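Aim 2 progress update. The chain analyzed this quarter is reproduced below.
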Amino acid sequence: MKRMKNLIPIYSVMVIGIFSLIGCDSDMLTAPGAENDDQTAVSTQIGVPIDQLKLVPLKPEIVEQLRVLGKKAFASKQIQSHIGGTVGGEKTFGNKVQIPAFALEEDTWISVEVECAESNEQCGAIVEFLPSMTFLADVTVTLSFDVLDFDGDPDLLKVVWYDKSTGLWVEVDNPLIDYDDKTVTVKVDHFTRYAWLL
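Predicted structure tokens:
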């Protein structure tokens, strides 16, 4: 009986350890906009299916430029892992990504694409960052709302990101809004597609 009492704490620790391992998924990605304080976080918000996505339209002059470009604006650059760098900007209507040094495992071609997506008989903006990958450190994505055909309160705009695992568009948590530059900035640990909703 005494021997059994000595084993109870050991069994308790083993059971707790097993449940901890079962409940963790080391492959989960930090949701764009979520804080990452040495713990992996995911957005708990419910997403929007693609067939219910109501995109904020682009300005007519931007739509015309995209039509001339074949419905996409594109910027690409090889980023050296030990240096980092920025891709996008003027060619992609103010949409860009800043990659710090050592966020990449190796030198990588990074692309920013702005495309005209048909939504409710209008052209809505979708910005995609490629290639699909996870970073060793957070990168900074900047999205411009100056290209949108919208002159209301910027706080009403919602930035959503595409969750490939669920096929849903999920609202970005806590984006940093720059009212002067008409941009939102978010730190992310992986690339995805972004869109604007009201």
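The domain at 48-197 is CATH 2.60.220.30 (Chondroitinase Ac; Chain A, domain 3). The helical segments are 2-23, 60-68. These observations will guide the mutagenesis experiments scheduled for the next reporting period.
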